[in-house]
Write a structure and sequence with these properties.
The complex is a heterodimer of chains A (217) and B (204).
Chain A (H helix, E strand, L loop, with lengths): L8 H28 L17 H7 L4 H4 L14 H8 L10 H9 L19 H5 L5 H5 L16 H8 L23 H11 L4 H4 L2 H4 L2
Chain B lengths: L1 H23 L43 H5 L1 E2 L2 E2 L9 H14 L1 H4 L8 H4 L11 H4 L3 H10 L13 H18 L8 H17 L1
Antiparallel strand pairs in B: 1-2
Helix pairs in contact in B: 3-8, 7-8
Classes of the chains: A mainly alpha (217), B mainly alpha (204).
Chain lengths: 217, 204
Amino acid sequence: MPQYFPPNVNAFVRWSILGGGAFLVALLIALPIYARTVNNAVGVPVEQPIAFAHNLHVTQLGIDCRYCHSTVEVAASANVPSSHVCMTCHSQIRLGAPQLEALWLSWEQDLPIRWNRVHDMPGFAYFDHSAHLTNGVGCSTCHGRVDQMAGMWKTEPMTMGWCMECHRAPERFLRPRSEVFNMAYQPPSDQLTLGRELVVAYDVNTNKLIQCSTCHR
Amino acid sequence: MRAKRAPVLLRLAAVVAAGGLLLAGCGRNMAEQPRVEPLQESSLLPGRSGSLTPPEGTVSRQRGGIDPVFFTGQRDGALVTELPVELTLGLLQRGQERYDIYCAACHGYVGDGDGMIVRRGFPRPASFHEQRLQDASVGYIFNAATNGFGRMFAYADRVPAEDRWAIAAYVKALQLSQHAHADDLPAEVRRSLELERSAERASR
């Protein structure tokens, strides 16, 4: 039987196995790093069907977050307002404005506006707004100065590492419940003293906060 | 020579199989699970939200069942004049907070109908301090918040019945506050008011 391959193919095969293995290992390291850093879109505004401006509605018009995100205090989801909510004002205001085209369409056809998600937990991680608000975590700690944003983007990476930074030591971030909706809140200079008091006062379960099953349930 | 080549191929196959298995783990099928999350599109009704509206006539099980006075503000077709909940300081404080969130944008923080949205072109509602509305019952305020009033939309979708009663009670309190007489105040409050006033006079 003739030899189909010259002997040096052996070396080639060995090297390509080694190279392939190294490539796989590099890929397995690089992909998660990419997924958790470059890919988490901090500071990148998300395109929306209507150029809704929080700074106009919240700061100039003085509308409270809860007028639109009505379930944020009582449920896991904060809720994004239906067209009915926009129409409580826009049934009279800026009628026929081309910027609001998608709103009129949605209202006439009785179909929801398709907002693009900005923050989105993967299905295997559980998040609950009400649990955070009732324990003194303010909107601006996680979402930044929404009241100054003309568009909408993430100000925090929302990775597990980021969640854990607070869950390991919540006293560094807690504020009084009455300040949760205050977007301009500045922590006092003795935040740790206040934070430790609040952990006790709100009965924050610090053991639960670092257990895998709290978020992966 | 030949005896050696087979194990190399075998090892190659093993590496490819293992790599394939590892790469299979890179899928996002655990991130996109086959359940409908809040705000996600319904899998049954394309184009609609997964959070469906309950069918018309659905009865709320809040407060353990059906209490028409509590949910409609009406008894035998007439608007009630008495609060169906207990009037406490807590209720008024809750009412103030909810009024400031849901009503003040148009009706103004003091109820005079001069809210920011009105200044930007929304039709101006009547001031709550007009005689007609001073005389209106607590059920009248509740009914407007529940079913809407003219060009004002209903708020029952976002403000639960408990909170609408709290708001109605607060609006009645707001009306009192604008027409309160110093003599109606408790003695200590009146004294501190007088002290304040004389301090003001002294500083002039």
